[in-house]
Amino acid sequence: MNNLSTVSRPDSIAETHSNVRRLRAVPNPEHQRPTVRPGMPDAVAWASRLVQAMSEVIAGDRPISQLVRFADEEVFAELNRRVRLLGLTTTATGRGAHERSVIRSIRVCTPAHRVAEVAAHVRHGDRSRAIALRMEVRRNRWVCTALELG
């Protein structure tokens, strides 16, 4: 007899929901805030600044040249391509402050020494955007080595 046939499946959404509630994951306090090792910059502070800067570049509120030192060649080239496709060649000096990008939430995980992975929710006016990036320490500063925009 096949073992798969003996597994019971929930009959309703309520049963599924009750099963999910029973599987509460208890967060590990060590993973709440990435640890800062001596001589390394704070990953959360850098992630917040970098996400804010990238969202402003994508919105046209900041020149892309300001990200040269904080993104590797591939990430910078992809951001530059997106900015050119959107036709954002200059900063938007005439926009009101109410249209600035605002970070609503940010999560930073450090899966390895000198590596941080970031997930952020950014609002720009009435629109939301998800930004995920990977940062690695190079020459004692965080550099974005992978970027996903949603």
From TrEMBL:
In which domain of life is the source organism classified?
Answer: Bacteria
- InterPro entries with a match to the protein in the record: DUF6459 (IPR045596)
Q: Name one Pfam family in it.
A: DUF6459
Q: What is this protein called?
A: 3-hydroxyacyl-CoA dehydrogenase
Q: Which organism is it from?
A: Kribbella pittospori
